[in-house]
Write a structure and sequence with these properties.
By secondary structure, the protein is of the alpha/beta class. Helix content is 40%, strand content 13%. Strand 7 and strand 8 form a beta hairpin. It has two domains: 266 residues, Rossmann fold (3-Layer(aba) Sandwich), CATH 3.40.50.150; 121 residues, no CATH class. Helix 8 packs antiparallel against helix 9. The two termini are 35 Å apart. It has 17 helices and ten strands. The chain has an eight-stranded mixed β-sheet, sandwiched between helices. A two-stranded antiparallel ribbon has the order 7-8. Bound molecules: S-adenosylmethionine (SAM). S-adenosylmethionine binds next to strand 3 and helix 16.
Length: 469
């Protein structure tokens, strides 16, 4: 591999050596400094093919996944991702002729994947989208989300039109064309609501209220139709590009991509042994994926009860059922003076480790686990997640292979905030662990999925990074 930064030192660790934690002041030097974008020049657009069909908080850039796949897996391998989010690992696995098993707590995965990995051989036609849109605009069907607060988020006339359009989509035959229109409607339903559509979390803003008021004085319905129309065609083109690419480059691709959204990865049954794990766990910061996507989930037909139950299982908002101990984590715990933050930290590591361990138990001997994480701060204290995970798993049948550090250039994760972490995260890390030939790991006991999930309701005032989007 080429070192793009002449001053960066390559890691000196090898899997044969006992894992040694690099000294704190040499952390950056102890890691291999890379730019995944530069290492994978064949991907020059993070939204290429179907990757950009859905916006999702804290998505992988495909270059990281591609690099991990090229370096640590081979054609035909099975890859597991217990935090699949919007399915980046699934798309890349398909494009690299690997198989994948994807899990996520968020039900969106089930709606996203059939579109992102589109197998059909026949080109899709714009005329069929037009026909469907005409039917939608003339439809008599109605669909109202099972959401007690829905009126709070929409002007009545917009809600009425959206309920007509969604009524049509929920009643029409489920074809690739209806899913293309559905993807467009999801975006339009957010754009035409009172929520800020530039931040992932639902937040009714004065700016948006004024914008919608202005829109209502103008030709809002034409604008809504135009948006759904152009987004549908854009998605259609992405699917056609995906199909053409696979026909030209992936002769007889037999990749098997399986997914299960709406499951807790700590306890889900992984259906087979795998050759690698490639994943990015949730951030320690207050990133609430289910809450961020609940408007979409409601329109897709999921109920308030279903969404509430899933939100309670989100990491790190559940009570820890065991305390993870490692040298670095214990130090952070000692330094933390706020009890609520200590609980958040314990919850984060308990459930993140449980979910990773559940999938890593199903890895073959010598398989690789590639875990992509940041180094967030909690009350101003840096939490080196990769190091904590390395310390934990090297005591449980894995060898530390290396850690890559990618300095964030274009993507500000949580930057420019007025809190104890004003600079946000500067680097992200790809930790590589290799499963020992003979390996035993401890499996957390599960009584019931929901019983233990007593939620620590996220309180925006006490959340470690309340400014996080
Ligand atoms: C950093 S995101 C993953 C994004 C993904 N790599 C992508 O490219 O879209 C972390 C994911 O963890 C999921 N998650 C949180 N708690 C979970 C749990 N208990 N079980 C399974 N998934 C969970 C969230 O829904 C979120 O999609």
């Amino acid at each position: 591999m080429k070192n793009r930064n002449p001053e960066a030192q390559f890691t000196l660790f090898s899997i044969d050596n006992e894992f040694e934690v690099p000294k704190e002041e040499t952390t950056s030097d102890g890691t291999e400094l890379v730019s995944f974008r530069e290492l994978v020049p064949e991907i020059n657009d993070t939204g290429y093919l179907t990757h950009a069909i859905f916006a999702y908080p804290a998505k992988f850039i495909p270059q990281i996944v591609r690099y991990a796949m090229n370096t640590y897996t081979k054609e035909g391998d099975w890859i597991v991702d217990p935090f699949a989010g919007s399915g980046t690992v699934g798309v890349e696995a398909y494009l690299c002729k690997r198989n994948a098993i994807l899990f996520d707590l968020n039900l969106l995965l089930n709606h996203i994947m059939p579109m992102k990995v589109y197998h059909n051989q026949e080109r899709l036609h714009e005329a069929d989208v037009h026909k469907l849109l005409e039917g939608m605009q003339a439809s008599k069907h109605r669909f109202m989300p099972v959401w007690s607060n829905v009126d709070y988020w929409y002007a009545p006339e917009i809600l009425d039109t959206l309920s007509q359009y969604w009524g049509f989509i929920h009643n029409v035959d489920n074809t690739v064309y209806s899913t293309v229109v559905k993807a467009a409607l999801l975006k339009a339903s957010k754009r035409f609501s009172y929520t800020e559509d530039r931040t992932p979390k639902l937040a009714r803003s004065q700016r948006k209220l004024s914008a919608i008021a202005e829109l209502l004085k103008a030709n809002w319905r034409e604008q809504l139709d135009e948006m759904v129309h152009s987004l549908s065609l854009k998605t259609l083109r992405s699917l056609n590009d995906f199909m053409m690419y696979t026909q030209q480059h992936l002769n007889e691709n037999t990749s098997d991509i399986q997914w299960q959204g709406g499951v807790d990865s700590s306890y889900v049954a992984v259906p087979r042994v795998c050759d690698a794990l490639i994943t990015s766990p949730p951030y320690l910061q207050a990133q609430e994926y289910i809450r961020s996507t609940k408007m979409e989930l409601f329109w897709l037909g999921h109920t308030e009860k279903e969404i509430r139950e899933l939100s309670r299982l989100e990491i790190p908002y559940r009570k820890a059922d065991r305390i993870i101990q490692t040298e670095t984590l214990d130090k952070v715990r000692e330094m933390l003076t706020r009890e609520d933050l200590r609980k958040r930290l314990d919850s984060y590591f308990c459930h993140t480790v449980n979910a990773l361990e559940n999938s890593m138990n199903q890895l073959k001997p010598n398989a690789t686990a590639c875990i992509f994480v940041g180094n967030p701060r909690i009350d101003g204290i840096m939490v080196e997640i990769w190091r904590i995970l390395a310390e934990y798993f090297t005591e449980r049948g894995f060898a530390f292979e290396k850690v890559y550090e990618d300095r964030i250039k274009t993507r500000k994760l949580f930057g420019a905030r007025k809190n104890k972490n004003p600079d946000g995260m500067k680097s992200e890390f790809l930790l590589i662990l290799r499963k020992n030939a003979i390996c035993q790991t401890t499996v957390p006991q599960c009584e019931s999925l929901l019983q233990d999930a007593e939620a620590l309701a996220p309180d925006p005032k006490t959340s470690p990074d309340s400014g996080a989007s």
